[in-house]
């Protein structure tokens, strides 16, 4: 019997399909009738809890972002210098206002950032405050400030010149000197209640239910209606049981609404409670519908399955037998042939997918060849200066010593930096180097440009010490810095700033080159982004023009690290440009 079944796919499918369809359908009908009610309720609760988790994840992201931002702001050198000066400095005041405004600009859920000085200097704020309830919150939390603690305020109102009256809740923390740990002031970052309410409303909650967000004292911070804000939860839901666990579900009865299911979850780091209410009638009304539909569907499916499985089984297996015969004779060393597609069912889709796979394999082979050629071309461009380097080094060394003998320190410094710069650029054709060498190479370039363009910019390097011995592709930072100086800072009236950041993030390294130059408008930014991602063979910027060096770096990153890497460019006209890239740490290249 077993051999008889093994020789025929049609026989095996006939038996398996009849068993797989008839018996499960009968069993499903009986079991579904008995457990539909409890299953519907459990799914409603599970769906509600998943929705709460999604809302909580979004709120926790905002809270985490605010806390990280607060640490970043406190550690800012300009903020520290402004708060720790002997007197208020108007230039630092203006610079810090612009810094805070830029931080808030890209984060719609942040309403305002305010830094209050312990010496009664003018407060730093990302927007003009006409009226604020922050002072009353600070007075209420004075004991926490004195203890050096950070905390979240209750809901209060701010009125600004830009956005009018807004309800906000703020993270407050003291600002201490990074050198002497003296108290310098207070930092407040305010979350917009409208943005929190938008998250709650867009969560897809049941139409007849609602979601609330409360603080640790049980006061409503946000919800479906503004009339309940800053009021105790017990007024909205009298006799509600205490929410002592991190999350949970229970049944709640109230006059006028009947029986509801209450789900709640604690927001990490704040002890806020996210509370969702689902009317029980929402899912109990579905039970009868589920039972009816299940019974009808199972009965019809059972009858149709038994009849049509046997009728169409032969027709289904016929093209499969033809496919098996064709594939059996394929030579694996030859090109995969295409198959004629004569149907639009699953078998037809299988043949169509097989044909697409064959074409895809051929394209990938051609793409690999093109990528190898592009990689060699990019590496040749990066190493094109390797012609008789020792002659160049000796000549620069001679100029360096002549400048020292003539007591011309500026020329000596510039020639020394140029010598180190070229020595690294040539580097015997090596593709990779230590991160510390790449940073030193960029610093030598900055020295040269700082002497060339005196009083045009000031450069700062902030490099994570953990990056020093990590290996990376060479000649990545210098083209980005050159772009910032030549196309951003040089064209700016007055003195600008250049910032280079390097940070180790898990198994990746992130580098950022940021300037306060003239920036770009949206159309120019889109044009440069398009040039970066333009396909091979399309037009590209000419050497020496803005975008050429960026595209070269972008292509080298993708060729060596994969298409998931590349340059990320952000810019605003009149404010400056920020270029960043993230590359993985390659274990085989670690020192």
Automatic annotation (TrEMBL):
Main location: membrane
Pfam families xrefs: dCache_1 (PF02743), HAMP (PF00672), HATPase_c (PF02518), His_kinase (PF06580)
Membrane topology type: Multi-pass membrane protein
Coiled coil: 354-386
InterPro entries noted in UniProt: Bact_2-comp_sensor_kinase, dCache_1, HAMP_dom, HATPase_C_sf, HATPase_dom, His_kinase_dom, Sig_transdc_His_kin-like_C, Sig_transdc_His_kin_internal
EC number, as in UniProt: 2.7.13.3
Protein's recorded name: histidine kinase
Protein's cellular compartments: Cell membrane
UniProt keyword annotations, A-Z: ATP-binding, Cell membrane, Coiled coil, Kinase, Membrane, Nucleotide-binding, Phosphoprotein, Transferase, Transmembrane, Transmembrane helix, Two-component regulatory system
Gene Ontology molecular-function annotations: ATP binding; phosphorelay sensor kinase activity
Segments passing through the bilayer: 289-313
Domain Histidine kinase, residue spans: 469-587
Domain HAMP: 314-366
GO terms for cellular component: plasma membrane
SUPFAM superfamilies referenced in this protein's UniProt entry, alphabetically: ATPase domain of HSP90 chaperone/DNA topoisomerase II/histidine kinase, HAMP domain-like
Reactions performed catalytically: ATP + protein L-histidine = ADP + protein N-phospho-L-histidine
């Amino acid at each position: 019997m077993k051999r008889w079944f093994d020789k025929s796919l049609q026989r095996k499918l006939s038996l398996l399909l009849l068993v797989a369809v008839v018996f499960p359908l009968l069993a499903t009908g009986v079991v579904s009738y008995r457990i539909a009610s409890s299953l519907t309720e459990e799914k409603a609760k599970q769906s509600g809890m998943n929705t709460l988790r999604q809302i909580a994840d979004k709120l926790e992201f905002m809270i985490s972002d605010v806390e990280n931002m607060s640490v970043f702001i406190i550690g800012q050198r300009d903020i520290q210098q402004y708060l720790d000066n002997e007197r208020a400095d108007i230039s630092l005041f203006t610079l810090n206002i612009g810094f805070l405004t830029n931080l808030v600009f890209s984060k719609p859920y942040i309403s305002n950032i305010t830094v209050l000085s312990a010496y009664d200097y003018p407060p730093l704020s990302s927007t003009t405050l006409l009226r604020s309830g922050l002072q009353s919150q600070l007075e209420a939390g004075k004991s926490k400030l004195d203890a050096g603690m950070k905390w979240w305020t209750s809901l209060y109102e701010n009125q600004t010149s830009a956005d009018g009256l807004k309800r906000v809740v703020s993270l407050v923390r003291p600002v201490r000197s990074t050198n002497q740990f003296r108290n310098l002031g207070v930092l407040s970052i305010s979350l917009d209640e409208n943005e929190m309410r938008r998250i709650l409303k867009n969560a897809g909650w049941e139409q007849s239910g609602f979601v609330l967000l409360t603080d640790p004292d049980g006061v409503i911070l946000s919800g479906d209606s503004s009339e309940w804000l800053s009021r105790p939860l017990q007024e909205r839901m009298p006799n509600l049981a205490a929410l002592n666990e991190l999350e949970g579900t229970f049944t709640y009865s109230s006059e006028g609404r009947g029986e509801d299911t209450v789900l709640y979850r604690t927001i990490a780091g704040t002890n806020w409670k996210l509370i969702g209410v689902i009317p029980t009638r929402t899912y109990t009304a579905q039970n009868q519908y589920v039972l009816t539909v299940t019974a009808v569907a199972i009965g019809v499916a059972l009858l149709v399955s038994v009849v049509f499985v046997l009728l169409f089984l032969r027709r289904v297996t016929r093209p499969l037998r033809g496919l098996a015969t064709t594939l059996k004779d394929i030579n694996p060393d030859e090109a995969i042939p295409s198959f004629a597609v004569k149907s639009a069912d699953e078998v037809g889709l299988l043949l169509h997918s097989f044909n697409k796979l064959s074409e895809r394999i051929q394209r990938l082979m051609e793409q690999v060849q093109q990528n190898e050629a592009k990689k060699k071309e990019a590496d040749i461009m990066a190493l094109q200066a390797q012609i008789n380097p020792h002659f160049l080094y000796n000549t620069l060394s001679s100029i360096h010593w002549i400048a020292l003998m003539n007591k011309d320190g500026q020329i000596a410094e510039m020639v020394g930096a140029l010598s180190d710069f070229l020595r690294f650029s040539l580097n015997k054709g090596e593709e990779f180097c230590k991160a510390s060498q790449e940073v030193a190479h960029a610093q030598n370039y900055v020295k040269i440009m700082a002497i060339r363009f005196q009083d045009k910019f000031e450069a700062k390097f902030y490099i994570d010490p953990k990056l020093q011995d990590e290996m990376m592709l060479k000649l990545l930072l210098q083209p980005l810095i050159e772009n910032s100086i030549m196309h951003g800072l040089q064209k700016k009236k007055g003195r600008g700033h250049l910032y280079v950041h390097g940070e180790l993030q898990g198994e990746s390294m992130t580098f950022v080159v940021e300037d306060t130059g003239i920036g770009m408008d949206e159309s120019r930014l889109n044009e440069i982004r398009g040039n970066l991602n333009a396909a091979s063979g399309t037009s590209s910027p000419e050497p020496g023009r803005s975008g050429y060096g960026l595209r070269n770096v972008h292509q080298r990153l993708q060729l060596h690290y994969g298409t998931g890497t590349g340059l990320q460019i952000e810019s605003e006209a009149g404010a400056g440009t920020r270029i960043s890239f993230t590359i993985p740490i390659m274990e085989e290249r670690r020192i």
